[in-house]
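Form 7-S
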Amino acid sequence: MNLENAINYSDSILSLAVPIFVIVMVFITRKVALSLLLGIVLGGVLSYYHQPLNILLYVYENISSVFYSFDDSGNFSISYSSVYVFGFLILLGILTQIILYSGAINSFVNWAHKRVSNPKSSEFIAFIAGIVIFVDDYFNALTVGQISKSLNDANKSSRERLAYIIDSTSAPICILMPISSWGAYIIGVMDKEVPKNLGDGLFLLTNSIWSNYYAWFALLAVFLTILWQINLPSMQRNVNVDVKDLLDKHYFDEKSSSIWLLIIPIFTLMISISSILFWSGYKASDEPTLINILANTNTAFSLFYGGLITIVISVLVSIKHLRLSYTYEIIKRGFLSMLPAIIILVLAWSIGPVIRDDMQTGVYLANISKEFMSNDFLSLIPAILFIISAFIAFATGTSWGTFAIMIPIGVGIISASNGDVMLGISAILAGAVFGDHSSLISDTTILSATGAGCSVQSHFITQLPYVSSVAIVSLISFIIAGILDNILSGYIFGVCGILVLFYVYKKYFSKPIIL
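Output:
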């Protein structure tokens, strides 16, 4: 940015002002985009209260930086990554309309009604798809949504339930798979920040998987939520909020064509994006090992061009069932269906630098964490790391940024105290995943809602009780494992805790959703 912020908030509680303000405003106004915009304005006020004229420039530069920037020499540079993601979202909206107008949705619903006749079955399909597609969380969230939306609609499952299943499957499964974009990034951070005597990044990540309580318990919670059809009060009150593409006769022709007009585009989307992901990683790698390839993939590029290929294939296979007069409506509806998500994503990415760089929220929270971690609290250090990592990720909306901040701090403190490094790393990764996918300003939250086709706000509100319950159980598991110095003890408590807690939810708090 051209503006320079002379005020340092890294040692001030005001560092937390912007993220807390945004969360509060969402509950007050019930408007995510407005709350994010006001959060950026507040960041400008805190940074330039002594220079009021700079506040508007600050807001403009933060939002425009999502699309373009200038380097120190004044050279103009387009942010292709952002443009590709927004382009992919538009292509995804258009693809949905092509499938809809071709009559493939009706064919699929007719086929599915004969084989999948209840919400539980359709939700399990989304759950399994989320586990299988583990290469990248963006890819996971958006693809599983396209696979599952119409099937869930046909079987009377709400879009908010689908968004929860997508979000609480994609992030945990990506963190548990070293062979994913998340795994490659974490390995890179560990190789750079962790002392070599503790092992390389792949060794550390692989060994930390077994004590990542939150990721495993989150998957168990999704499984139980589907199996027992648990609908907590927030899920009961927020059903298909702002959903405009539910199956109804006002939205598309009632004709049926062929189920292959749905299957071919979905498989084309998966295969083309996966292929370009690996190709982009291979081209950018000095040594074409699998980890290097995954570390160098260009997700945004792959999503856009994979989506473009899928659009072309979809038009070709559906051409007999599409009228030329549909073209304008398909493009218009596709664009408008994704416009709210694009606006929210632009603002979420704009507020990221405000919270991370200007307000120094992550640095402030990390500095506080050091005061609570010492030899006197050695057995509680993993639990403290979990809490701090969750808070940083929730406040900043980024798990990857949290990894970069907390891994060197946490490993350094645990190593100096001769504590369990693996358990500490697991706690950091687990806390960051929870904070990220429960955060309103996280791109994974936004894209999970987009994939499911529901309101970001309703997804945030309905998911929070489920994931917070899992986080509390996980925290206690980290405490038990730290005190007893036994990972298995944490699992015994955690699995029993999740089973009992979610059974209580089913017995006393859950009611069927009537659609």
